[in-house]
Design goal:
By secondary structure, the protein is α+β, with helices and mostly antiparallel strands. 47% of the residues lie in helices and 10% in strands. The strands form four sheets. The protein has a four-stranded mixed beta sheet, covered by helices on one side. The chain has a two-stranded antiparallel sheet with strand order 1-2. A hairpin with an 8-residue loop joins β1 and β2. The protein is globular and about 70 Å long. 36% of the residues are buried.
């Protein structure tokens, strides 16, 4: 196969579009990303299964001249030609696909349907551009789509299958070949080869991969003695393994819960007593999201975590009574969930956005409050690079907050590198995780 269509499309569905779609649809960025990850191979599979459909071929042929890729967010709203095309591709399975993706990604059905329109437009537009750039006629486009049939199922993310997307009848009823053959009816199976007789050959015994009636393992002789042995030996082995596991669990000492990311990505730990520049965050060893009261609005966060401590400080009047910035500069609040991908200053780990949204809610509830963002690293690596990376991460959060309408309340963003790190560079990665973090403090 010469080309994977999905590689063409991914460039159109980057983090900037995810952020814009999240804002437009009112969903979390992680939910949008997850939905797109499930929809993309499903749409490509639908197109591949309709590689000779005139409506599909016409849409791709005309896509480049219509400038579809320049208005992908516009396709997320009701768009007649996209919806007609989807109906042609998926038929009565369309609503099931929308429902399955909504459940999988934790978003609404309306958002799932909008993203399906967007992903379909991105796919049609990307394939159309490629076809125009490479002078493919409709026969060439059909062959390109046919080439995708052998890889679609393998590209679905964990937790999804064609059957789970309510296109199970389609997946069971047809077999995708890597050749450019027509789709074949019938379940996917490999027939047993018929051996060619050889004159004077000794008879051969074929050992099957099925489990024998006696309960033996498939590649071993199926004697009555073997079956009887394993009937009592296997449960005994399992019992021994279970007993060993329970013994090791009882032997373990109570430890704090730690979430770490290898390398230079940021981490959060349950025990923050050793974290630099933080006099506010003292959390229990077991972290459980609870309702944090923000003047009648409930935020999900940890008791003793960032949101809880910031709200308590604001409610106490301590911020209002602080004489100047110097009275606030040593009181930092560590983010519990906000982490960047390893080595990146622009890509957050999944699950980070929720706490940033909580911070926005706090700032909007207290419009007089101002904050500053700080980024930190451990002592490993070049310090100039650490300062640069931590500063870029802090700036990214500052800019993200500005997009949510609280720009006037975020006064600065600084990267401190390993300046305040307390764990030696020779310590384990798990120990050094205490120094890799993002934090926030109040300012005047």
């Amino acid at each position: 196969m010469s080309l994977n269509i999905i590689d063409l499309i991914k460039g159109q569905l980057g983090s900037a579009l995810v952020t814009q779609a999240s804002s437009q649809l009112g969903e979390s960025e992680s939910g949008i990303s997850k939905a797109i990850g499930g929809l993309l191979p499903a749409v490509v599979g639908g197109l591949a299964n309709n590689s000779n459909n005139p409506a599909v071929l016409d849409a791709i042929s005309n896509a480049h001249s219509q400038g579809i890729l320049g208005n992908l967010l516009g396709l997320a709203t009701n768009n007649t030609w996209v919806q007609d095309l989807l109906a042609s591709i998926f038929g009565d399975k369309l609503s099931g696909l929308v429902n399955s993706i909504a459940t999988y990604a934790g978003i609404s059905n309306n958002s799932s349907a909008s993203l399906l329109n967007l992903v379909t437009g991105a796919t049609i537009g990307s394939v159309g551009k490629y076809s125009a750039d490479n002078n493919l006629d409709q026969a060439g486009i059909s062959n390109l789509l046919n080439d995708q049939k052998g890889i679609v199922s393998s590209l679905l993310p964990a937790g999804l299958s064609l059957a789970s997307l309510n296109v199970g009848d389609w997946a069971k009823g047809y077999k995708f070949d890597n050749d450019n053959d027509a789709i074949k009816n019938g379940p996917i199976s490999t027939p047993n080869p018929i051996p060619t007789p050889v004159a004077n050959a000794e008879p051969k015994i074929e050992i099957t991969r099925d489990v024998a009636d006696g309960g033996t393992f498939p590649d071993r002789p199926t004697t009555n003695e073997g079956g009887s042995i394993w009937k009592w030996l296997l449960p005994l082995l399992l019992l021994i393994a279970a007993s060993y596991f329970l013994w090791k669990q009882c032997e373990k000492k109570e430890t704090t819960t730690t979430t770490t990311v290898a390398g230079d990505s940021l981490s959060t730990t349950a025990d923050t007593s050793s974290m630099p520049m933080d006099t506010a965050n003292t959390m229990s060893t077991t972290k459980t999201d609870e309702n944090i009261d923000l003047n009648g609005t409930m935020l999900k966060g940890y008791k003793g975590g960032m949101e809880d401590n910031m709200i308590t400080f604001l409610k106490s009047g301590s911020y209002a009574s602080a004489a100047n910035d110097a009275a606030l500069k040593d009181n930092w609040y560590n983010f519990d969930h906000v982490n960047f991908k390893m080595g990146s200053s622009t890509e957050l780990e999944a699950g980070s956005q929720g706490q940033l949204e909580n911070l926005v809610a706090i700032l909007k509830a207290y419009p007089e409050a101002k904050i500053k963002i700080g980024g930190y690293t451990d002592k490993v690596g070049n310090e100039a690079a650490n300062v640069k990376l931590s500063g870029e991460r802090a700036t990214y959060i500052k800019d993200w907050l500005a997009k949510q309408g609280v720009a006037s309340q975020v006064t600065g963003a600084d990267g401190y590198g390993s300046e305040f790190a307390t764990v030696d560079a020779s310590a384990s990665d798990a120990e050094r995780a205490a120094d890799r973090k993002m934090a926030v403090r109040f300012t005047k």
